[in-house]
Amino acid sequence: MGLVVQKYGGSSVADAEGIKRVAKRIVEAKKNGHQVVVVVSAMGDTTDELIDLAGQVSPFPAGREFDMLLTAGERISMALLAMAIKNLGHEAQSFTGSQAGVITDSVHGKARIIDVTPGRIQQSVDAGNIAIVAGFQGVSQDSKDITTLGRGGSDTTAVALAAALNAEVCEIYTDVDGVFTADPRVVKKARKIDWISFEDMLELASSGSKVLLHRCVEYARRYNIPIHVRSSFSGLKGTWVSNEPQGGQPMEQAIISGVAHDTSEAKVTVVGVPDKPGEAATIFRAVADAEVNIDMVVQNVSAASTGLTDISFTLPKAEGRRAVEALERTRDRVGFESLRYDDQIAKISLVGAGMKTNPGVTAAFFEALSNAGVNIELISTSEIRISVVTRADDVNDAVRAVHSAFGLDSDSDEAVVYGGTGR
Amino acid sequence: MGLVVQKYGGSSVADAEGIKRVAKRIVEAKKNGHQVVVVVSAMGDTTDELIDLAGQVSPFPAGREFDMLLTAGERISMALLAMAIKNLGHEAQSFTGSQAGVITDSVHGKARIIDVTPGRIQQSVDAGNIAIVAGFQGVSQDSKDITTLGRGGSDTTAVALAAALNAEVCEIYTDVDGVFTADPRVVKKARKIDWISFEDMLELASSGSKVLLHRCVEYARRYNIPIHVRSSFSGLKGTWVSNEPQGGQPMEQAIISGVAHDTSEAKVTVVGVPDKPGEAATIFRAVADAEVNIDMVVQNVSAASTGLTDISFTLPKAEGRRAVEALERTRDRVGFESLRYDDQIAKISLVGAGMKTNPGVTAAFFEALSNAGVNIELISTSEIRISVVTRADDVNDAVRAVHSAFGLDSDSDEAVVYGGTGR
């Protein structure tokens, strides 16, 4: 039996009862003969309470001090978890990110992990302890200041430690049973996925699935660390994310892994752009310089009569104002006619490596949307994904229609035949 | 202008308003041209809340994890304080005990400082920052584990940093105006002491005065760091504790510094001890092995008729049970008749280096108690202190009577003449 890294989120350790429940589960893994390293987030609302406190003393808290403040949250949860484990008769030691060797760059609030040197963790587990590590935090290589990793930071800590410790698996415990074929709040018949490849999971994560963040899956893929996403409440087997299906899983990958949707984006359309070389470059340079992350990009075919074209792209709503202001400043240089900003859109994505070799997936996707009366505004594709932008109001109908059309509903027999040829 | 270390206790930073008020005071010191290092305790009730959380997950929290948990408290207050200072337009950086170079032994919960290596703090203040340091915590030399310093730990952190940084003064900010000639809650006419020697302060601290703990004063005396105890609320000048009176202070020390009282002790009497060599040694070895800290010890003159004597000593109430149990186990060996345990006692102490050279202080002390109708049960003296044990019910009357008799009352003219000869 090898080493297992388990990660528990804030909702799993929201109070003393939660901590005791999690402690029991950790001890079970230890009893099963594993070496166990646990990564834990701050308890429930702790982080929000600390952010609120910071707001009370300063409207613009400095990054270094904000990180120092927030990391108190995991310090509390990890120490309590170690106590709860020891109370069950097993040895446990807690470690800060710094003590665990999580070395980062110096970008406070969203530091990247540069290196992991888990010597103290390895020593601790080799001595028979369960090691508890604070998620979400590290120490900067240059200044030795405390840093936080930003969104999904604790999951990333867990995967990074799993890689550095050569773990068998990184178990991500959460408040849902795993990754589903669609958001179960939207699609009642959504099914839990038993196994999904890193590639499909990456596409789902960047298409709006919230269970695992892109960053963590990317890290796991790079170091080939199998992730097991599961519930800390139910004890059920969850979803394996890995290169190859795990023991007992079907070896043949489903054609379609799932349907993701995202209502966090807005659409910007630059209307009446002169259709000559360099205009698009000027536009996207301006957007990039404003540090806006764009997602889908579509350029209309130029109207021959006017020599003008429209360029549309999607971006996070939170970055909309910044993008529009940056574009306004290029208006004279580019000579476009107008800007349109639309935040009432949704993106629906169909993900599955199987679509590469199965003709007709695209056609079936569009047919399903059409039958549901959903209009398509933008289209973008990758090898294993098709995404469309629709009206925000249509998102639930669209997701349900597509989920059903591809035989993903839990009462479906999965035998879906695609018409047409080619993708 | 040199370097100043300021220490703020939990009641001074109990909420966001308190933190902002303290930030202003710190910035004033900086504006006056000082390099400023600040030691801060956890906010108000934070430590109690964390202790409560620990109790919810484990009845016997392990020392290492308990220290990890508690140190989250200062992490929060120091980060918030740094933010509040930066919000006033001054640069500030917060540092954990470990980052500040507070090296301790490995005794979790009451670690002793072994060394202070404040290289990062010196760098930070040399670069123009105000450095904020977490009080009460350090890192163990051997295992690199986080430790806490126990009672009075933040004051000790401040004095230790002041010594290591060669500070001009260590300012201890608290919720009272300084050290008083008696507890102002008991003696309405108690006066604030402007200056007191390390020696007198040490005696007051070990006699029940709560403003400064013995440990912190002892550290300051060893490294000759002047302490200025003052209120973080009033802005008044407080009490200087040092070898020599500070500028503007009267150079002649008062005969008597103050009256301290202590109701936290109990009295154990071993009745009917055979008066032969070695019996007392056996008794106190048993008590010492039970890790009981004894204070006053008195042995009666042996009664010639019986060859038996009584031995009484005082000790912290919390250690009473341990002491009595340890003594019961020696009963057969020592052959004493019985044990008496009495926790309804008080200790009243008169402290002042001046009493060494002023005859009649002891007599005047006993006369004051006698006039107040207070009975004396035990007496113990040092060069600069007389202590008596009385009934707990008599403590307030006794303290007031002595305070008044030695001209310490705020409406007194201080001209006290002692009758009698010798001490």
UniProtKB/TrEMBL annotation, chains A, B:
Q: Which InterPro entries match?
A: AceGlu_kinase-like_sf (IPR036393), ACT-like_dom_sf (IPR045865), ACT_Aspartokinase (IPR054352), ACT_dom (IPR002912), AKii-LysC-BS (IPR041740), Asp/Glu/Uridylate_kinase (IPR001048), Asp_kin_monofn (IPR005260), Asp_kinase (IPR001341)
Listed A to Z, the keywords are: Amino-acid biosynthesis, ATP-binding, Diaminopimelate biosynthesis, Kinase, Lysine biosynthesis, Nucleotide-binding, Transferase
Provide the ACT domain boundaries: 268-353
Q: Which reaction does it catalyse?
A: L-aspartate + ATP = 4-phospho-L-aspartate + ADP
**What does the record give as its pathway?**
Amino-acid biosynthesis; L-threonine biosynthesis; L-threonine from L-aspartate: step 1/5; Amino-acid biosynthesis; L-methionine biosynthesis via de novo pathway; L-homoserine from L-aspartate: step 1/3; Amino-acid biosynthesis; L-lysine biosynthesis via DAP pathway; (S)-tetrahydrodipicolinate from L-aspartate: step 1/4
What does the record give as EC number? Answer: 2.7.2.4
| One Gene Ontology MF term | aspartate kinase activity
Pfam families per record: AA_kinase, ACT_9
Give the source's domain of life in one word.
Answer: Bacteria
Q: What does this protein do?
A: Catalyzes the phosphorylation of the beta-carboxyl group of aspartic acid with ATP to yield 4-phospho-L-aspartate, which is involved in the branched biosynthetic pathway leading to the biosynthesis of amino acids lysine, threonine, isoleucine and methionine.
In the record, the note on similarity to other proteins reads:
Belongs to the aspartokinase family.
Recorded protein name is Aspartokinase
Native source species: Streptomyces gamaensis
